[in-house]
Amino acid sequence: MVELVKDGSTGMEKVVLREPGGATAQVHLYGGHVTSWKNEKGEELLFLSSKAIFKPPKAIRGGIPICFPQFGTFGSLEQHGFARNRFWVIDPNPPPPPPALTGGNNGNGTSSNNNSSSKQQPFVDLILKHGEDEHKIWPHSFELCLRVVLGLGGDLTLITRVRNTDSKNFTFTFALHTYLSVSDVSEVRIEGLETLDYLDNLKDRERFTEQGNAITFDAEVDRIYVGTPTKIAIIDHEKKRTFVLKKEGLPDAVVWNPWEKKARAMVDFGDEEYKHMLCVEAAAVEKPITLKPGEEWRGRQELSAVPSSYFSGQLDPIKVLQG
């Protein structure tokens, strides 16, 4: 089921997706921003700060903000670009229903890659086009489209398209700035990024090579891992849950946690909330994307959450990554 509603607490319009098994997702038109993703038990899988500000031009803190046309802060553009603090519109003529999620499952371990399954998946298409305000700070004509799909079994997929509608080339970087809800970040590990190079944003993007057999957290982390695999596992020991992130067209992966000092400095972030969130996001940052007039770029991020107990060996993270 797909429903457009007005948020009672903020007055903002949002789209609510519900799949037959009970999973839900919410997408605010402000920012084209996924602000909630719940499993069939009603458990929230995304982090949204209790101090998030739902008032333009402030971006919403948490969920999945879209960073376009840049990730980070460069030149005259605001941090992470402007897509996350603009009002998007629902596409009145969306393309056909999305194909079934590749390698997904419908909750009982069976594949959902048939046409009848794909037609049951609730989805919404949103569009952001350039306007006068955008043209003043980024003088290019573009069309940015976002499709949010809630698959059978509760998998969440974001499919993005950027089309150059200008008469000249333009270049951009991009990220789906995903805030995951975790029990305790010090008990979380990321697997799939071992031995890879990363750019450290805490050291002016100096390049390093990951040395650990997994990424764990005991201080602030702000890194861009480059040339990453299509699948990454985020293992939450305490919740006995593993997030599996699959991606296409987005070669990099950003990993971020602000830790205590930076958390206290952010007005829209609770002082202790850093303990319960972790950003792991599909991105294209190291090598900017250039589009010629009429060309289109596509990126895709697919999230699933599976029960796991790493300590008891019920889930082998390597098998998750290879599955």
Please characterize this protein's 3D structure.
The chain has helices spanning 115-120, 132-137, 259-265, 317-322, and strands at 2-6, 13-18, 24-28, 33-38, 66-67, 89-90, 123-129, 142-150, 156-164, 170-176, 179-181, 188-191, 197-200, 206-209, 221-225, 231-236, 241-248, 252-257, 277-291, 296-307. The chain has one domain: Beta-galactosidase, Chain A, domain 5, CATH 2.70.98. The chain has 323 residues and is mainly beta. The longest helix has 7 residues, at 259-265. 8% of the residues lie in helices and 39% in strands.
Keywords, separated by commas or semicolons:
Beta-galactosidase, Chain A, domain 5; 323 residues; mainly beta; single chain
Topology:
Elements lengths: L1 E5 L6 E6 L5 E5 L4 E6 L27 E2 L21 E2 L24 H6 L2 E7 L2 H6 L4 E9 L5 E9 L5 E7 L2 E3 L6 E4 L5 E4 L5 E4 L11 E5 L5 E6 L4 E8 L3 E6 L1 H7 L11 E15 L4 E12 L9 H6 L1
Antiparallel strand pairs: 1-2, 2-3, 3-4, 5-10, 6-7, 7-8, 8-9, 9-20, 10-19, 11-19, 12-16, 13-14, 13-15, 15-18, 16-17, 17-20, 18-19
* CATH architectural group: Distorted Sandwich
Helix and strand pattern: EEEEEEHEHEEEEEEEEEEEHEEH
Low-pLDDT runs: 100-117, 310-315
CATH class: Mainly Beta
Count the beta strands: 20
Beta strand %: 35-45%
The profile of the biggest β sheet is: 8 strands, antiparallel
Summed up, the helix count is: 4
Q: What is the first-to-last residue Cα distance?
A: 30 Å
State the domain count. 1
* Rg on CA atoms, Å: 19 Å
Briefly, what is this?
With 323 residues, the chain is mainly beta. It has helices at 115-120, 132-137, 259-265, 317-322; strands at 2-6, 13-18, 24-28, 33-38, 66-67, 89-90, 123-129, 142-150, 156-164, 170-176, 179-181, 188-191, 197-200, 206-209, 221-225, 231-236, 241-248, 252-257, 277-291, 296-307. The radius of gyration is 19 Å and the shape is globular.
